[in-house]
C-alpha cells in the first residue's frame, strides 16, 4: 500500500499568486516547522488571504500545475500489480480531484482521497469573491492529522493476525506531513524540502526521492523481493549522510580559499 500526499505545490501556487505571496507563506512554514505555530492556523491564514472565487482557483491550478515526473508510470504499475494508492492530503478534495483528472486522465476519478474539504462562507457562495473557506478533516492542530488516518490501517492487521499485513509506504515533502512521518514502514521524503529537515532533526528514518522514478524503482524491487524495506531505508540514510558531508566539505574548502 502506498500512501502519498498531493504536493504542496498547488496550495503554494494559490497563496503565492492569489494570496499574500511567497515570502509570508514561507515564514509561516518555518514557524510551523519550528513549533511556533500549528499547520492548521498557518494554512487557514494562507487561504484567508485568497479572495478569488473557488472555480477560478481550480482553473488556474489546472492550467499551471504539472504532474510530478513519472507519477503516471508509478500509478499504472501500482494498478497493474494491485498495489493500493491512496492520497492523504492537507489540501482540499475538489482541488486534488480536479488535478488528478486533468493530469492522470479519467483514472484520476478512481484514486481514493482523504483530505480536507471546501464549504461556502455563511451567506455567500464559493462562486463569489470571498465566498469559500476550508473545512478541516479533524480537530487536530494539523487540520488533517495523517497519523490518525494511517493508524487504523495498521491496527486492522493487529486485530486480524491471520491476515497478511501489507507493507505501507508514504511519500511526502512538507510541514503538513510531519504527523505521518513515523507511521509507515518506509518514508520517502522529497529532497530539499521541509520534511527532510524535520526527519533529520527528529531522527525519523527516511529515504530521499527527487521524483517518482526513484520511488517506482524502490517499490518495484521491494515488491519483487529483490531488496527489503530495511535495506532501502539504510541505503537512503547512508546516501543522505554522504551527500551532506560532501556539502560540508565543499563549504569548508570554499571558506579556506
Question: First CA to last CA: what distance?
Answer: 50 Å
Strand order of the largest sheet: 4-3-2-1-5-6-7
Element-by-element helix/strand order: EHHHHHEHEEHEEHEHH
**How many E strands?**
7
For the CA atoms, what is the radius of gyration?
19 Å
Uncertain residue ranges: none
| Percent strand | 5-15%
Q: Helical percent range?
A: 40-55%
Q: What's the rounded overall pLDDT mean?
A: 88
Largest sheet: 7 strands, mixed
How many alpha or pi helices? 10
Structural class: alpha/beta
Molecular shape = globular
In a nutshell, what does this entry contain?
By secondary structure, the chain is α/β, with parallel strands linked by helices.
Fold and architecture overview:
The protein has a seven-stranded mixed sheet with strand order 4-3-2-1-5-6-7, with helices on both faces. Helix 4 (54-64) packs parallel to helix 6 and helix 5 (71-80) packs parallel to helix 9. It contains ten helices and seven strands. It is of the alpha/beta class. Helices cover 50% and strands 14% of the residues. The protein is globular, with a radius of gyration of 19 Å. Strand 2 (85-92), helix 6 and strand 3 form a beta-alpha-beta unit. The relative contact order is 0.13. The model has no long low-confidence stretch (mean pLDDT 88).
